[in-house]
Amino acid sequence: MDHRQLSMVADKFPWVFSAPLLNACGTDGKFCRRQRVITPCRLALALTAICASQRVETIADFHCGFPALFGTTVTSKAFSNQVAQPHCADFARTMAARLISDMTLKVLGFEKGRAFGELRHIVMQDGSSCAMHDGLREVFPGRFTAVKPAAVALHTTLDLLCDAPPTVVLPPDPASAQAFLPEPASLRASVLLADRGSLALHALRRVQEEGGCLLIRAKAGRPPHVVEAFREDGTRLRSRRNKPLQAIPATLPKRQRVELGGQWQIDGHLLCLRLILRWNPRTKSFCSFLTNLPPKRYPLEGICRAYKGRWHGELLLKEWKSYANRQAFDTANPALVEGLMWAAIAAAALKRFLAHMTQLLLEVPMSTRKGAMCAMHVFGELVEAVKRGDVVGLYTALEAALTSLACHAQRAHPARDRQTGRSQLGLEPCFEHHDAIEFAEAA
Can you give the pTM of this predicted structure? Predict the structure, then answer.
């Protein structure tokens, strides 16, 4: 282990959980004007540590953990009143955003010369919903009112090369995912992977005009005019060219995938995209993808494999729900529910950071899921050192934590990843930790 780099990593914790900065943030946000026992810094550290190290089901679990962590006495009512403030949710969101932005590193990269290696970012958009207390139906209305009238959505973008989410939002469940997609200008020299219905055609044109790439599930809507058609084996389907898409589905082959060159008239401009079709025998329908990635560099097979990368977004959401207490708490106080969910997201981000730093410093391919499971066993000494401001103790605890994670949270089958997993396209763990640390400092 490079101890100079480890020292730079250890400096991250006092910075993220800096008492002057967090207390000032709480004061400026009108969360805690009189700082007594429950200061913003103490509360931020306690909520994050408790979510990361144990199963949490009620507010009493947080109340019991806070005095145990800081050796203080605080009544249940005083603690509940503090975390139930409307401004507590804003403070928790700021804390989570600070932790995510300051503890995100580039941990994956493509082999030299491989497709996708020239892209700056590979961005995936995904989301999930979580049912809440029925009393929150006015604040967080759900989509399925007959079953659960209140629900919150979680929309996130995942940068595959960083294996971390740059943005997270918690809107009401009916909110459209389109409102939370990255700005087209931010996708320059990058590719966006999104599910069906995430982008309208005029939004696709904006992404393309800004120099961005996209790979999304196509949805029913305005069919294109087909100007070219190829079978997966390269055979040109001449009889399907220069026709509207509605006129040819019944004649398309079902045993091989098909690539069509489609054109749309959008806002007076011509939009040209590749439309890839695959027959699904179970649903008796075609599954389709839209992309503007060039066919010579990105053949049909590579496009279909690349879209499977969206599964990483599903794994991220599952990890948050299973190992960071990202469930909705049974209370009708919207600020309390939102604040505790942001604390859970902050805890998940901290666990993922530990897994990533283990990979970079010990050059071991890591499983973030195993890291999230194992981190609870190494978290205690880290939190104690941060709480005391003990720089030497934090360094020692961090070295022990990373060593333990390297032993117990490695990826089980790196060779299999190259055959059927995330490394099919040449995506490999980064072990060039010097560059990674510099990236963290610039983030």
Answer: 0.87
